[in-house]
Amino acid sequence: EIDIKMHQLTGTIDFSGFGNLDVVVEAIVEDFGIKRKVLAELAEHVPDDTIIASNTSTLPITDLAEGLPHPERFIGMHFFNPVNRMPLVEVIPGKETSPETVAAVVALSKRLGKTPIVVQSCPGFLVNRLLLPYLNEAVMLLQEGVNPKAVDRVLTGFGMPMGPFTLLDEVGIDVAQKCAVVLAAAYGERMTNATLLECMYEDYHLLGRKGGKGFYLHQGKKRDVNPELPAIVGDWRKANNVSPRQFSDDDILDRCLLTMINEAARCLDEAIVASPLHLDMAMIMGIGFPPFRGGLLRYADALGVDRIWTRLCQLEDKYGERFVPCERLQQMIRNQEGFYNETVG
After folding, report:
1. Nearest to 246 by CA among 146, 315, 139, 154
2. pLDDT at site 222
3. SS3 label, residue 303
4. What CATH number belongs to 2-118?
5. Catalytic option among 70, 78, 205, 278
6. So what's the pLDDT on residue 1?
7. 187 CB contacts (<8 Å, ≥6 apart)?
């Protein structure tokens, strides 16, 4: 059956055959200028009623649609890696995307066996906007003295399917770095890029699994910390005058997870996603947030907003703006409510 389906696929090096397509999904390099150029060229070779979807993971759909002849039929359709295992598809309408286009892409996602969730266009959309601060904080911890295996152990112990450094290697250090740059430009200080990640990509050309080494050395099924990593991190610390310190498991957990909770609260305020339930579903199906926790915001409600606020303020005092509690959390404390509008106490 697989062979039969594979023989239904054909490849091409030009736009031959694009004149009778209903849907085209663009999935090229995550570069705004290159995507705009390719999308404009593509639009010249498809019928006026063709839906063009972009698999971009971070770039705003409204911006990508500028200059296209039919922006009402342009939309984001973001799949998650590995595509054969992760069920989520983010469906992202731009400012001019028509309801009919949204409905068609939602239906197509379901036909593909995926679970679509409609989110609004912003840098990073929903899942990557929450995931990148988590990954960034893990790299910050490495910069400050924590072994990557220790960070991965704590997060997999929490229930994540893989630790942040394993995930960075799987996604690709180059891809993560480009996404981090986009989000830092969009959201400023609270998403300042961990410079060690940039160093590993730009100076040492480490890519992760696809290059054979990143934070880990990838040889067969065995996975050990890249033996080059201690020297790379040591040189970075020396250049940045950073002395390694000890951190507890609770420190690691709070720094990685509370950044996600704080950003999730902002996404709800901005109506990026329809509800806490939709957000939790997206995090479970998009990055494998442990289902037994109920989702990111169910976990937040279990912690309690008072504890989250107090801990974020402590982390803000130590590490600055990226831990400033958002306004929604303050409002929840005043109203003694959780994310699911359940009165506390």
Report:
1. 146
2. 79
3. helix
4. 3.40.50.720
5. 78
6. 84
7. 123
